[in-house]
Design brief:
Blueprint: E1 11-12, E2 16-18, H1 43-51, E3 55-56, E4 62-69, E5 72-76, E6 81-84, E7 97-102, E8 108-111, E9 126-128, E10 134-136, E11 141-143, E12 150-151, H2 154-163, H3 168-175, E13 180-192, E14 194-195, H4 201-209, H5 218-225, E15 230-234, E16 246-254, H6 260-275, E17 286-291, E18 300-302, E19 308-312, H7 319-329, E20 335-337, E21 352-353, H8 365-371, E22 378-382, H9 388-391, E23 392-398, E24 413-417, E25 425-430, E26 447-452, E27 462-468, E28 473-476, E29 486-493, E30 496-503, E31 523-531, E32 539-546, E33 556-558, E34 572-577, E35 580-587, E36 594-595, E37 598-599, E38 601-606, E39 609-610, E40 623-629
Parallel strand pairs: 8-11, 13-15, 13-16, 13-17, 17-19, 20-27, 22-24
Antiparallel strand pairs: 1-21, 2-4, 3-10, 4-7, 4-9, 5-6, 7-8, 9-12, 10-11, 13-14, 18-19, 23-30, 24-25, 25-26, 26-27, 28-29, 29-30, 31-34, 31-38, 32-33, 32-35, 35-40, 36-37, 38-39
């Protein structure tokens, strides 16, 4: 499906929410506040609540506490949109984080900021509300009335489980892992005064599942990255109003800015009523709510360890936003870099893009560890431990795109474990830019090191710490809180990355670097790697000598003819004299290689260096030209010293 603005590639920050499995409660559903029996109050209390237009909540209702971290669209230019949070100018009307609770009906309600104590409550905890908490009609918010949330004790939770014949939370947790077959339904929402209008049901199904030939989408993205350990299928089979995993739901809710909470709750209630189920997960494991434009000021959000994700209109169709939000459903938190939320754009949990067919990439090392897809191909170093491999690892790291299930020699991920009191753990992978990861937007063909908490198994943000090329190393001083350092060294990069991880100088350095592919020491290898779009024959490139470096021979290379669409082509590799070069890539039609007709890209290596990193997305219009290289002038020989006079001085005359 070709969208009118899908070539406007840009990064976008997402709303995200941390939420866990639903407990039990009895708050009403729908857009309007539904009156219900008040909890244990006398007539005077009821009259007082009505006088102030408040709905007092039921005694001992149980909720699941959830945290939402929110990012917004803040700026527009002629060609792109910049999305960021409130980190520059704080706007109290646009909170960066909200506290929420969810009831057993799937309804989600925000807790009014400053209305009570939520400190120390973990997202996903089962809680009850304090006495006198109330809901104000029309706000979709709960006021704690100065009280604090009450967390359920382990004993209370066990007694509750013992009394239940069917604890559905265990079954729901099984559905929310990132392994196995998952069913998904996307919902086109039609509301009062607005509707999701990006595509019809068939078009949305194609963009989510590829049911009409769409090449890259939620289904192909997850199945490719997981190497078919996670299968995404259209849900709702057997329901006449769900067609190839898509349905249309009408709700009597105004499509006004900020009304997304009411609208999402109304959609959930309508699904249950329309299909006669108690919970949407009785039909499908995951649901995408595609709301009209402008209802949410963010572009998408989702709940961790949950089944729901919510999108603003066209963002329901883009694979990067789909995979990002379902990543939250599977328990993956954001990938950051420095102080920039979403700043690690090497994988899908960083920023996302308004591209219909890309970018084709997977997840960073911490998230990949969490998926469980590479459990048989990962090494857990217990830094400071008694085993030799705890303190020294010398190995080849295989890129996740080159995963081969039957190859027992592959190592894809490494975790450098330490006590949580000492800091977050480090995770390492070779971010090879090929195949299902050919569109990675940062650190392609480097060894990437990230830091994350929760032992790599729970919902936790990660931070990019290093991108290492061949011959580079990074030191983490005092890794265990003392004077001993952890040093990561990349010896070489090619089909695999040769890496040494050494703690306290305990390695023997037995791995020899891979020799240069060029026998002549005055040459370097140039490698041109192309991933084509739907029209491969339109793409061509040239490489020629520029400048006047001493000893550099003339060079004028041109590309082969590409004929295979939407595929990573065989790399063009040639040893060239060290010098200065100009590379030009051209699209004959003038619309680049991305993003309306596929997610093409290019990459040029000079030796081990990606010379156009960050510039090679394929969205270059008619052409892109860039220079690289340097004159490698040999040092002049030292001057010949003056000859030494070996003749002895004359004997002085006698006095």
């Amino acid at each position: 499906i070709i969208h009118p603005t899908s070539r406007e590639m840009f990064r976008s920050y997402f709303t995200v929410a941390a939420i866990a499995l639903a407990a039990t409660s009895t708050i009403g559903v729908g857009a309007a506040v539904v009156e219900k029996s008040l909890r244990g109050r006398n007539a005077d209390t009821v009259a007082s609540a009505n006088k102030h237009q408040h709905r007092v909540l039921q005694e001992e209702e149980e909720f699941t506490f959830l945290i939402a971290d929110i990012q917004y669209e803040d700026g527009f230019t002629a060609t792109s949109r910049k999305l960021q949070g409130n980190s520059g100018n704080k706007n109290p009307n646009r909170p960066e984080r909200t506290m929420n609770v969810q009831d057993a009906e799937g309804m989600i309600y925000e807790i009014e900021a400053g209305s009570g104590d939520t400190a120390g409550t973990s997202s996903g905890s089962t809680v009850t509300l304090p006495d006198n908490a109330f809901m104000t009609p029309g706000t979709n918010k709960i006021n704690l009335n100065g009280g604090g949330l009450k967390k359920k004790t382990k004993k209370e939770k066990k007694e509750k489980r013992d009394l239940q014949e069917d604890d559905s939370s265990t079954e729901l947790r099984r559905h929310l892992t990132a392994i196995g077959t998952k069913t998904v339904v996307a919902v086109r929402v039609i509301a009062s005064g607005g509707a999701y209008n990006w595509t019809d049901e068939a078009g949305l199904s194609d963009d989510v599942f590829g049911t009409n030939g769409d090449a890259y989408n939620l289904k192909t993205g997850f199945e490719g990255c997981s190497h078919n350990q996670l299968i995404i299928n259209p849900g709702g089979g057997g329901y006449s109003d769900i067609n190839n995993g898509v349905t249309t739901i009408n709700v009597d809710v105004n499509a006004t800015s900020g009304n997304h909470g009411n609208m999402a709750n109304a959609v959930t209630a309508a699904i249950k009523a329309k299909f006669g189920v108690n919970d949407p997960t009785q039909i499908a494991d995951h649901w995408l709510y595609c709301l009209p434009s402008g209802v949410t000021t963010s572009i998408a959000y989702a709940y961790a360890n949950h089944w729901m994700s919510v999108y603003s209109n066209e963002w329901c169709n883009y694979p990067s936003s789909q995979m990002h939000e379902l990543g939250h459903n599977f328990g993956f938190d954001h990938s950051n870099e420095g102080t920039q939320d979403y700043g690690d754009v090497s994988g899908m949990m960083g920023s996302s893009y308004s591209e219909d067919e890309g970018p084709m990439m997977c997840f960073n090392a911490a998230k990949s560890w969490q998926t469980g897809w590479f459990n048989e191909k990962r090494v857990n170093m217990n830094i400071g431990g008694s085993e030799a491999t705890d303190n020294c690892l010398e190995t080849d790291i295989t890129g996740q795109a080159d995963y081969v299930a039957v190859d027992t020699t592959q190592t894809i991920l490494v975790k450098m474990n330490r006590a949580s009191s000492l800091g977050r753990d480090l995770f390492l992978m070779y971010n090879k830019k090929t195949g299902v990861n050919s569109g990675t937007a940062e650190g392609g063909n480097t060894v990437m090191v990230v830091e994350a908490g929760a032992e790599g198994t729970g919902y936790a943000e990660s931070w990019l710490m290093g991108k290492l090329g061949a011959g580079q190393s990074q030191t983490f001083a005092g890794y265990l809180g003392d004077d001993r350092d952890l040093v990561i060294t990349v010896l070489s990069i090619g089909d695999t990355a040769q890496v040494t991880i050494e703690f306290d100088g305990l390695c023997t350095n037995t791995i020899a670097p891979t020799p240069s592919p060029c026998e002549n020491p005055n040459q370097k290898q140039v490698s041109v790697q192309i991933a084509t779009d739907t029209y491969p024959a339109e793409t061509s490139w040239t490489l020629k000598k520029v400048g006047s470096c001493a000893g550099q021979a003339d060079l004028n290379l041109s590309s082969p003819t590409y004929s295979t669409s939407n595929a990573v082509q065989a790399a063009f590799e040639q040893c060239v004299d060290k010098g200065q070069y100009e590379f030009t890539i051209t699209d004959a039609y003038g619309d680049g290689m991305c993003c309306s007709y596929g997610a093409g890209s290019f990459q040029v290596f000079y030796g081990d260096r990606d010379v156009f990193e960050g510039q090679s997305s394929g969205d270059f219009g008619a052409s892109f030209t860039g220079n690289f290289g340097e004159c490698d002038v040999p040092a002049s020989p030292p001057p010949t010293p003056a000859p030494v006079n070996s003749t002895p001085p004359p004997t002085p005359a006698p006095v």
